[in-house]
Amino acid sequence: MTDGSDIFEDMAYRLLQYLTISMLLGLGVTHGISQGPTIDGLTVVAPPRAFTTDPFVEIDSVGSEWVAFVPYGFTLRGQSKVHYDSDRQWWGERTDGIKTSIEMAQSHGINIMLKPQIYIPGSWPGDLTFDTDAEWAEWEASYTAFILHWARLANSYNVEVFCIGTEFKISTLKRPQFWLDLIQEVRAVYCGELTYSANWDEYDDIPFWGEVDYIGVSAYYPLLEDDTPQVDDLLKAWKPNVKAMSEVSKRYDKKVLFTEYGYLSVDGCGGKTWVLEKSVKSRTINEECQANAIEALLETFGKQDWWAGGFLWKWFPNGMGHEGYIPRDYTPQGKQSIQVLDKYYSQW
Q1: For residue 111, what are the β-bridge partners?
Q2: What is the mean pLDDT of residues 204-229?
Q3: What is the DSSP letter of 268?
Q4: What is the value of pTM for the model shown?
Q5: For 313, phi and psi rounded to 5 degrees?
Q6: Where are the domains of the chain?
Q7: In CATH, what is the architecture of 37-345?
Q8: Can you point out the beta strands (E) in 45-105?
Q9: DSSP line for 224-276
Q10: Closest Cα partner for 114 from 43, 176, 182, 179?
């Protein structure tokens, strides 16, 4: 039997952690809209092997004070289990790699969002579904273990923000009670801020925004499909989406966080990025299109008091983790858009 004093000491310790994180973020201890700092983030790709030089020096140079780390788990189609933290995975996706990455980032004074994600070969989380309640329950138990593993690690390092899931379009609608229960289980082991990353076309349907701290959006909105749209035209194209997001923010009294945003550096990257990805290696390189799209997004949302900021997808630490098409990929490294990023991030 546990000594009652031990329980109260643990509760006091967790409350102190929460208050400390809240003060560091400038967010206070209440959940609604606040005057917290804009999150000028980069999503750092998990490298296949350990760092030999410090990759955060380059991140410092663009004025980014936030990074997201993404430890992947895997669900194979036809299976109801999450596989993670395997020796077969890249170093940066495993526990040791995430710990080292967090420690290195924190040594630079960089804030962190830990964002565990599920990869489904040949599919995506939005299409994940099962035929029976038993299969759902088996997957949910496995996913819970996956999330709690990373939530405990995040808490042990005082990680500022933790993302409980990404783009589970069917699951969040069909199984809302699972997500409500998961949030409570995560809050029992993690004292920082919580979000969920909804796809841009589903964020208005998420039933549990009232239980997390940020309305998280994967902001890959299709705006204009011109080869090289101009910034002014992109600014106009954003207007209806800005209005819709502001209404959702007001409804829940929560800030909107772009848990992901970004553009390929190819012709037409301001359009349907998921279509472009399928043939990205054959697309015409267009750094100007990427730079214009990023500038329009940051110019648009940087003025909204309900916008918490965002994490650019994606950044290759020391050039590691790419898939062989860096000139066309989302990274701004070595491209025109790095100047745009520096312009905005350095002033926030």
Answers
A1: 66
A2: 98
A3: T
A4: 0.90
A5: -100, 110
A6: 37-345
A7: Alpha-Beta Barrel (3.20)
A8: 66-69, 72-74, 83-84
A9: --SSS--HHHHHHHHHHHHHHHHHHHHHHT-EEEEEEE---SBTTTTS-HHHH
A10: 43
